[in-house]
Structure prediction request, 273 residues.
Amino acid sequence: MNRKQFKMPFRYSVFHGEGNCDNQTDNLREALHIRTDLSADGHRPVYIVDSDGCTVDDDYTARIFINVRLTGEAASHPDDLNAAGLYHVTFDSKVKARDGLLREELAELALKIFDAHQGIERLPEFDIEVLDAFGVVLTPESDFDDFGPDYGHVQKIGEPLLQSRQHKTTESLITKLGTARLENQALVSALTEVEACLDGLGVAESIDTIVGDNVDWVTRARYLTAVALGRRKSYPERESVALWVGDRYSTDFEASTPEMREKWTQEYIALHP
Prediction:
């Protein structure tokens, strides 16, 4: 399943040798790949520094953030007026010393720390999500209670992040991989066969059966295959449609009927080619 991801607000410079820097990127994964390639080519030392002057190491890539976004135009409670933003959560040394903690467990602890040290008075007016260092949204492990909110701190470091946009095109995603190679041809053939096997199975495609909480997995597989082969456009992010419906119609997208949700989704797609 595709995971929601945000573009983080940092740039990365990859240095090698005596401070040489030929590569800069705003993508942490790309920076790590560049570092690996330079090391493989025999460059020493090789290191990454972000736009805040922080060196990228294992602790850096394990960082946890909380992204707080308003769902409307403004907060109604005075204590929430400046709540929207990107927050960095730092954990106590006892938490860092605990081996084997999952990112989802750290995400749950991060929420507890945020609630205790920052907090939101009117939660329905905000979207609050926990991100890893790569901007990927984490699902907190709600049963994790090994540490309390006193085992860390939270600091606001910037404006709230907007969600990374998916590239919307009917051009085959396979074609975008580069020059046509035998491997691509084999993959296209395999996907075409999968598409044929799934034809007629599942239910009707909609924002609910493809992107919602009640996904029909056979239908989603059929849809993803068609998208990969360039036969149809991908659905927009559900949250983007919900925000648009709220602004345009002053209506709760999620509280509406499946038929209305799909109708509005198709309107959104038509207006955002």
Remarks:
- The first helix runs from residue 28 to 40.
- Confidence is low (pLDDT under 50) at residues 165-182.
- The chain has three domains: 12-58, 62-158, 175-271.
- The longest strand covers residues 64-70.
